Here is the input.
Amino acid sequence: MLSRLLPLALTLLALVAGMPARAMLPDAGLLLPPVLPAVPTAAEAPVALLVDLGSGQVLHARRPDARFMPASVTKVMTLYLAFELISQRRLDPAQVFTMSPAIARDWRRVGSTMFLDAGEPVTVDDLLLGIANVSANDGAAVLAEGQAGSVAAWTALMNRTALGIGMTGSHFESPNGWPDEGRTFTTASDLVALARAMITRHPDKFGYYIGRAGLDYKGIAQVNHDPMIGRVPGADGIKTGFTNEAGFSYLGTARRGGQRLVLVLAGVPNGRLRARVARAYVEWGFSAFERRQIFAPGAVVGEARVQGGDARRLALKAAGRVAINLPKGSNSPLAATIRYEGPLKAPITAGQEVAVLEVTAEGVAPARIPLYAAESVGTAGPLDRIVNAAMGLFW
Here is the structure.
């Protein structure tokens, strides 16, 4: 790993006014603001994680890499896989599937449901709305069999897709998270990676399907039991989960002023406590920190060396503004480092993710912001190679 300092230290006076690589989530040791009335205790939430999605900065963490049974939060993986398949034109919201006799036998009226019946036609669009907003177990099973041919084939796709976005601590045995003696499991770190992938790769689908007040299907009106929607400003929700063996869990998100926070809770003893803790936790995340902007959107934040290209250096930019969260009242100096596997090898396309900017300050977890190529770099021609070789003697 090659590091280039940018510069070695950034003092607050030198700051420029103004997703991504997966954050490395520590297990413990974060120094938080001194007053923490809204951070859940271990008794309230054995697993808890709060992350600024834009910077990847961990605002609070408790056992982020501990495995737990996600219950219906599993359905977020089913939704993400469906969004991916729609983008690949392997699934269409207008497609119509039917509940097969086998799926009806296993899933008709089992747990949370959208009241599908054997042989009943239903569009993919309605299935996704049912899965996202009323946690439809039957809808998830019908979607899985309809697209992949079987529930087993769908869950195999879930697991391959999960690994592709860095969910190395997760495994799925069903599309809906029904109790399976712990064969389905995940981690808080992995769920943050899933939320990041869903929001950054499929913002339009996320905005359309996720976070509705409920679902009215077949004349049956049901409400979304997400604890933040309609109660926390900027909240999108995502998914609640509960089984007797898993307890109460939650993956949620809220966005204010260009900042999006993602939270994970697991092992909460009851639903009322989950609702209270989730709302207090995310409000604390927005209120207990001050966001210090370092670079404005579109600013060049540094450069990287290029090998075998028609240019020897490449300017680097972030997708948005570069900021770090500091406890309110903190005057800690900042340091920033660009990290990349280098030198980068040409060709490189403008907009390609090639590096990470790590911003650190005393007492908080680092912010890690993906950096992208500001321009394209082509493969070196014969003359370029001669010039580069000569320049290499002096660099």
Summary: Confidence is low (pLDDT under 50) at residues 1-32. The chain is about 25% helix and 25% strand. The two ends are 19 Å apart (CA to CA).
